[in-house]
Amino acid sequence: MDPLGAIFAFLTLIVFLCSGVFSFEYLKGSKNIKSYAVFYVITMAVELLLCAASNLITFYMCYELLTIMSMPLVIHERTAQSKAAALKYLFFSMFGAYFALFGIYNLSKKATSLSFVYGGNIDASVWVADEKILLISVMAMIIGFGVKAGMWPMHSWLPAAHPVAPSPASAVLSACVVKAGVLGIIRSIWYVAGTGKIPGSYVQKAWMILTLMTVFLGSMLAYREQVLKKRLAYSTVSQVSYILFGLAVGIGSVHTDSMVSSYAYVSDSITGAILHVLAHGFIKAVLFLVAGAAMRYMNVHKVDELKGIGLKMPGIMVCYTIASLGLIGIPPTGGFVSKWYLATGSIATGIPVFSWLGPVVLLVSALLTAGYLLGPAVKAFFPGREYRQDHKDDKPLGKDEKPGLLMLLPVATLTLLSVLMGIFTSPIIEVIRKIFFI
Amino acid sequence: MNNLMDLSIEYSIPGICGMPSGLCFVIDGFRLIYACIATFMWVVSLALSSQYMKHYERKARYYFFFALTYIATVAVFLSADLYTLFIFFEAMSLSSYVWVAFDERKASLRAADTYLAISIIGGLTMLMGLFLIYDASGQLLLTGNTLKINELADMYIMAKAVKSGSLHTQIWAGGFCMLVGFGAKAGAFPLHIWLPKAHPVAPAPASALLSGILTKTGILGILMLTNYIFAGNMEWGVIILTIGVLTMIVGSLPALTSTDLKRTLACSSVAQIGFIMTGIGVGSLGIPMGTSGAFLHMVGHSIFKLILFSAAGVIYMNAHKLDLESIRGFGRKKPLLNVIFLSGSLGIAGVPMFNGYISKTLIHEGIVEAAMMMAHMEANGMAIPISAGTLSVIEWIFVICGGCTAAYMIKLYICIFVEKNSDPEIQAGYDEGGRYMNNIVTVALAAAALIPPTLGITAQKSLNGLTDMARLFLRLPSVPQAHFYSWESLRGGLISLAIGVVLYIGVIRTVVKDDEGRYSDPVPAWLDLEDLVYRPVLMRALPFLCAIGCRVLDTLVDITIVALRKTVFKDSRKTEELKEGTWLTHMLGTAANKAADIKAYFWGLRGKKASKRPDYVHRFALDYTSFKESRTVIYRSLSFGLLLFCMGLVLTVAYILITRWW
Predict the structure, then answer these.
(1) Are residues B215 and B250 in the same domain?
(2) If residue A47 lies in a helix (H) or strand (E), which one and from where to where?
(3) B334: pLDDT strictly greater than 70
(4) Same domain, B552 and B631
(5) Which one of B16, B131, B550 has the shortest CB-CB distance to A217?
(6) Has the ipTM of the complex gone over 0.90?
(7) How many domains does chain B have?
(8) pLDDT tens-digit series, residues B435-460
(9) Residue A337: closest CA among chain B residues belongs to which residue?
């Protein structure tokens, strides 16, 4: 396992561990616990294998397996709705995987080997000779792996699958499984194909347009969405595209025909992207777990029902608020630092229009994020005098009526991590810079 | 003084919060002054809170965020680079949100939403500016321990800016974005809307801090931009000046007509921020007097608003009302409160012997001098960013707005301390006296009230000393010398005060009071920039339009899939076992049924006859069964076997014959 895989594996371990602990209380008294537990552990194992994969074929096998093994988590409730959602997830992911497979097939023809070596296995002369087919295959891989990462236009499995899955499952889906797509793109571009002629090509432009569209679209739809978990799902759509945009713009703009180097200039926006993988992982897991706690104990499904929740389960909602601030990018949380590197790196590339349009879209999306996450947080803690008057005689909740330690502890741990990684970021940044030779 | 001027202690925590340089702090003269003012204000507010918050619930929440905001605010003032500043700026904005929402009335929550929205929009815009500036200059450190380093920083930016045109644009765009961010916090036009909403609903100690010190962090940022990134840039000066003048106007006018004590003070804050920005703008045109005046007014305004809002707090915690008609006459027979309020009022109105007079005079002199300079430059054929005539107009606007300040302070003072309440019973209650402030509050407010006259009287020493301390940060070559009590200076101040008296008699006593002499705001409530423009556009129209587009894109694939499934990939019907007959008989029967139905329809067979129509599906199935049975019978008969045998024989014979004769 190389350092890049280790970063993803670290995230996987932490999130799976915390959500797993959370599941004990969340699923108490629920049916099908056994199958849930089995597939939960298998999904984690497959995801770890995926991080450890050292060539593209192994990676692809794990990737497919991950889809299949995580599907039963979505189907947990066994309702018609969850079955439909799970099938949608399955078909979308498969579709994406076949797109990627097309790319893998082409790369295997052109590359000296498919094992992961930073800088890629394709000779510069091959890039010059077979530019067209290589660009097409890279584009296919971006779109294919992008399906799992929730990139427009194949993002709509996320808002379908998340609301029906149990919350801890949504948390790991959104925090880890979705990131498998990101890892797939990084692996295939930086470790197999090499950046080659991508900088400045139509592939980079199309990729940037797709990601920026997704960033805005996801935030906007989340802002208009009333179902809490669906809102979070759209938020994931938007946030994962932050990461993809960082990668897209980070390939760089330096490109001369005479000198095609595998080590093209890469910018700090990649640092931001990888940081955001971690930040978004922790934060989104917190948000989904909080949604789960609110669903289990307060029967909250719609966002409006969060009103006054902060008074009933303050610990959980404090975590929610801190996580929301992190996702908006308020310092000193992890979300701020990642956004800082994403945006400054993007501007530094000097790509016409996109170098500044990217940060603008990111900030507009951050504003919308504030709208859709902070609004409920505010209502939860400041429900207004009328609400307090109406609920004055409410009895304090009993021990079994509010989240216990098994829920609070994982949520608090993840929240703490999301803040700590914002304050003590330097070591992580150094690791990432070493990986990508920035 | 020399020692203090050179004071500069740097402290940094490297390697945290994502930047290699980490968090950087510095203490120089300016920052020391403001850290002290902040601390003093927090102490006074804390004293007031001890009595003001007595009857509130959830005090822990209030005090927690009270402390948090203090830490963040002091850190903002002490931060040495824009990155550190931004981090604490956001923390300050968000933790002070709790003050505004604290009351949880509908109005408070609405005002708090506005405050939060403006804070976040401002914060994000500022962040964009930071990105651009950081990229253009490669650093965000804006201070150094000596002037030399400051100059280096400028040179660096300037050199890069000159080198390429796009970088020039980038620095301007970045500077403008940051101006929006800082302006939003300072309460500059057009983002001043949160002040008149948030101040009246926040607890009084919090209002004092919001107005007195939080707005000053915005000014701090604008000073940083002006002194470090756009040092000596006249176009920038004109922008700041324009915004300052507009802010002055939009603050002064509602303050005149408002009939709510705290709202008047809040609008007054907007106006005073306008004064300060005008001073900074003039300073940026190359007149040091403007900058020093702005700085002194900034310091003064912090103190005035502390005093005035605290006094408003004292009134509120006794009378539980804030509209002028209800609290009219509250201050009668309360000499201590009277003196405290008077000190703040005279200070802010710019009456000679108080420090507000000194700072306003400096700004005024600055405008006059700038006009002279522009005229001079024009005469020499140099390009000028703003004409001398415009500056004269600005001078008059400045004087008139100063008059407005005097007028609305007279309004408040006369209403609270001179006039009697229209309801004699309430007045009797007010006059009864008793203890309306506890000891701590009394001591704290009295101490605060001593400051404006002390500074005003010892202006030559104390205020010049303050300016000298802040000289390094303000980048003044020397302390501008002005004769505060010369006739020239006094005349300007007195004209302003005279205009104030005229405005009070001419406008406030006639327009703001209704026929029965009661205070009522002549401006209709719906005339509100926020309700008319910002909310409908930002909350409804824009999201609605964007959402339509996004929804279409969102469902694009889903719709395609559905369309394909309805057309090309249509599922074949499930094959079912027929109860009787075969597909052929079923189809024929259905067709015959349909035909019979149509026939019945056209021939007018309805009711019983129609229902007697035979089911052809069934009939054909029966026919088919009988056909099959008779077929079986035939198959099994001997004659059928013989027939087949004969046919075989015939075929064989034919085959032989053909092969034989071919």
Answers:
(1) yes
(2) helix A33-52
(3) yes
(4) no
(5) B550
(6) yes
(7) 3
(8) 788 888 888 888 888 888 888 888 78
(9) B18
